[in-house]
Design goal:
The chain has 536 residues and is mainly α. It is built from 18 helices and two strands. The chain has helices at residues 33-45, 56-62, 69-75, 87-117, 121-158, 162-197, 202-234, 238-261, 271-295, 309-342, 346-362, 364-382, 386-422, 426-439, 443-458, 462-487, 490-514, 523-531, and strands at residues 2-3, 11-12. It is globular, with a radius of gyration of 26 Å.
Length: 536
């Protein structure tokens, strides 16, 4: 007889088994439910010799060996199924290692500022110009890695074929490499004009010119490293991702003093040495990352390399471009907020800078959660386990509230001593302590925002994430900061930060409810959606 399977060629059954071709594997999920159940039962009982669209598990039950099965078995050793087991354990296993990786990345910026500050004021001033620009450019790598994670983790959860998943990973890396080379060339060609427009002149501009060309050369390696790390995370492996990030940071920080000051017989390169240390760290890290991904079977040719290239590109960019823009919003907005702080005075700027450095380190667990929750949401959404994805989102939000409460207590009690460590003088420290004590009360809201953004990106709702980021910076923080600075001075800016975090945190909850990632009927979250015509 002939049993129909929607959207595919018919599958025959009878007394003789039918050979299953490679092209037909991993497709049972697309069959109608009643036939799926029939074939599963028949494959286990042996009453039906199956051919066509059976999963590897069902073929194994019949004793068939798939062409890719030997490779897939070895791959599973490096994969983690995030659709099974306690949700909190999945979140913890993905987020905890990322804390170390993010700390390592932050350490590079601190080390560069420390060592370059010893060269002179011009070098340190150049760092102040460089990092906001490079941070904004780096948003491309963050966006593309978010797009790759969304596409890959959903495919893993859905049970897509190993060949298709490996090929999608290569498509993501190829896309990232091509775009990053274009961006690097644009940076190299335009940086004198960009930094001149920002006000860099004289020796400061000379220091920038010594750094940026080498940094531009390292940018494609950064993008490839981050997308390869997204491949690991999409398969449930954040430990390797964190190790790669730590390796790049250790090499960078270790080489900084050697290349900047010319130690151990090396030439004294100053600003160029700092950029070269970054380049070497990224090259070594990306080489190891690609080797491990290929060796573990997470990347591979998978038939024709160009099969599904356009589909892969569309999937990645649908999330990657809005996510890149979302990540570029924050540094751009902070630069404009700093301009508002500057109206209060130089001590306020210094205190604000010291406070935000402390804040960035305090937020590492929340940033790690935002990195870890994406694969959990992606795999479960791809596996059509919506309740589990909603549970992961709720658990992430509760962590933000709990950790935010702890952070508020710590910063409230220890604002002065912490500010004294990072500030350069008593007046600066007073501004920093004021910021930490009051803004610390609202950091749970910022955690809700970054967690919701990561979850919505993994669920292919990057436009919602972008809207949330835009609203927090340009509809709330920036106008309130300028209004506060002009009316109340520094306390007004602090109040603006608190209001922006709290209101945006509420908006994050509303957005999660609107995208199906939060299951609740609380009127404070459903009423805004109804007012915009969104079904709840």
């Amino acid at each position: 007889m002939v049993l129909p399977c929607l959207g595919h060629a018919p599958i025959h059954s009878g007394s003789a088994p039918i050979k299953t071709e490679k092209i037909y594997t991993y497709q049972i999920v697309e069959c109608v439910p009643w036939y799926t159940a029939l074939v599963q039962t028949a494959a286990v009982t042996g009453k039906l010799h199956s051919g066509g669209y059976l999963t590897p598990a069902l073929h194994s039950a019949k004793g068939h060996t798939l062409p890719d099965q030997a490779h897939s078995d070895s791959d599973n050793k490096s994969n983690r199924d995030l659709t099974q087991g306690p949700i909190w354990r999945a979140l913890a296993s993905m987020s905890a290692p990322m804390s170390f990786g993010i700390f390592a990345v932050l350490s590079v910026g601190l080390a560069d500022a420390y060592f370059l500050g010893q060269i002179g004021g011009a070098a340190l001033a150049a760092v102040g110009f460089i990092y906001p620009v490079t941070t904004a450019i780096t948003s491309l790598s963050i966006g593309l890695s978010a797009g790759a994670n969304a596409a890959l983790s959903q495919g893993v959860g859905r049970g897509d074929g190993a060949d298709a998943t490996r090929r999608l990973g290569l498509h993501a890396i190829g896309l990232g490499l091509g775009l990053s080379i274009i961006v690097a060339l644009l940076v190299w060609a335009t940086y004198p004009l960009v930094f001149a427009a920002l006000g860099a002149t004289g020796s400061v501009a000379d220091n920038i010119a010594a750094y940026i060309p080498v940094w531009a050369l390292s940018f494609p390696f950064l993008v490839v490293m981050m997308i390869t790390n997204a491949v690991f995370r999409a398969h449930g492996d954040s430990l390797t991702t964190a190790a790669i990030m730590v390796l790049a940071a250790v090499i960078n920080v270790g080489l900084d003093p050697l290349l900047i000051f010319g130690l151990w017989g090396l030439p004294e390169l100053g600003m160029t040495g700092a950029a070269l240390a970054t380049l070497i760290g990224r090259v070594v890290a990306v080489a190891l990352a690609l080797y491990l991904a290929w060796h573990r079977g997470l990347l591979g040719w998978g038939g024709s390399l160009f099969d599904g290239l356009w589909t892969s590109t569309r999937k990645i960019l649908n999330v990657g471009l809005p996510a890149a823009f979302s990540n570029a919003i924050n540094p751009a907005g902070m630069a404009l907020v700093t301009a508002a702080v500057a109206t209060v005075g130089e001590a306020a700027v210094a205190g604000f800078g010291a406070a935000t450095r402390i804040q960035s380190m305090a937020l590492v667990p929340l940033l790690a959660l935002s990195a870890g929750i994406g694969p959990v949401i992606g795999q479960n959404w791809g596996a059509d386990k919506r309740d589990r994805a909603q549970g992961a989102t709720a658990a992430g939000f509760w962590f933000c509230v709990g950790y935010g409460t702890l952070l508020a207590l710590v910063l409230g009690f220890f604002a002065e001593p912490l500010a004294a460590i990072f500030a350069s003088g008593e007046e600066d420290a007073a501004f920093a302590a004021t910021y930490l004590r009051y803004v610390g009360l609202s950091l749970f809201g910022y955690g809700l925002v970054v967690t919701a953004n990561a979850a919505m990106n993994a669920r292919d709702k990057a436009i919602w994430s972008m809207g949330l980021s835009l609203g927090r910076i340009f509809a709330l923080y920036l106008p309130l900061a300028w209004l506060g600075a002009l009316t109340l001075g520094f306390p007004g800016i602090v109040a603006a930060a608190v209001a922006a975090n709290v209101i945006a945190g509420w908006a994050a909850l509303v957005s999660a409810r609107g995208t199906g990632l939060l299951k609740t009927d609380i009127a404070a979250l459903t009423t805004p959606l109804k007012s915009f015509g969104k079904a709840v």
